[in-house]
Every structure is written in C-alpha cells, then in structure tokens.
Amino acid sequence: xxxxxxxxxxxxxxxxxxxxxxxxxxxxxxxxxxxxxxxxxxxxxxxxxxxxxxxxxxxxxxxxxxxxxxxxxxxxxxxxxxxxxxxxxxxxxxxxxxxxxxxxxxxxxxxxxxxxxxxxxxxxxxxxxxxxxxxxxxxxxxxxxxxxxxxxxxxxxxxxxxxxxxxxxxxxxxxx
Length: 176
What we know:
- The protein is of the alpha/beta class.
- It is about 50% helix and about 10% strand.
- The chain has nine helices and five strands.
- The chain has a five-stranded parallel sheet.
C-alpha cells in the first residue's frame, strides 16, 4: 500500500503566495515572513516532484472542491501541484461519508474536537486511507485550529505534520 498525505488547503495557499508565477498575493495569508512562505513552497515542490509521495483525495471531490474554491485552477501553484500528482497517478483515492450539510462524518470524539466543520473532510480522509491500509498524515502550514484538537487527533491515530511547526506553535501560544 502507498503512503499518502492529506494536504490542507492552507499549505497550497501559502505555497502559491510564495510562487512568482501565481497571482495569489502574499498578504492574503497569515504567514507574513517571505522566508516562511518559501519554506512551505519548498515543501510542496519537494512533495510534488517525489513520485514516491502520494496525495490523498476523495472520489467525490470534496477536498479538491475546497481547493478549487480557494485557488485559481489555472494559475495557482498549489492547485497545479496537486493536479500534477493526479496526472501522474500519484493519488490514494478514498471515500468519505458526509452528512446532509456536506460535512464529513467523524467518530464522536473527533467530531467534538474538530470544530471547523470544513476541516472534518481532511481528518476523514486520513482515517479512510489508514483503514484501507495506507500510511497517511495530515499536512498543515498555518492553521492553529489543528493544535486545538491535537490530542484528539493523536488519540485517533491521525499524525499531523506542521510544515511551520515552531512558527505555528508560537502563534498558537500567543493566542492563549
């Protein structure tokens, strides 16, 4: 089974803001430091070009639908990187169940902990990939709410890779 990553939309946005070819403006992200945006761009470029690293996407396009709502599908590097993975068949395709409102269904403890209902699809995708025998993690750049539910994610076996770990934890600590 292939190992994969569920890439949070914020990673694609920050990477796109760092890419000279993308019209996404750097000030449209909470990451103000150019060097940190470049770090996220470098992570995504390495991910995109490594044929041994797979992106996890759902058959019903819930994750890509979010990507499309926040990125220009013709110009933003983040979107283009994910589509390059798809074009090279470097995707772990999974199914996720959603409720009547289109939010992914999660076990009760995670449903309570993951307060951003749009983020639930990302967690559900990790769980689905793992259920199918794939190694899988969630990749985040700048959203502190992943730290708010960190223990619940750990308890559920959801590994989260924070590309900007130190920056993110400092930002989160400053919010308390």
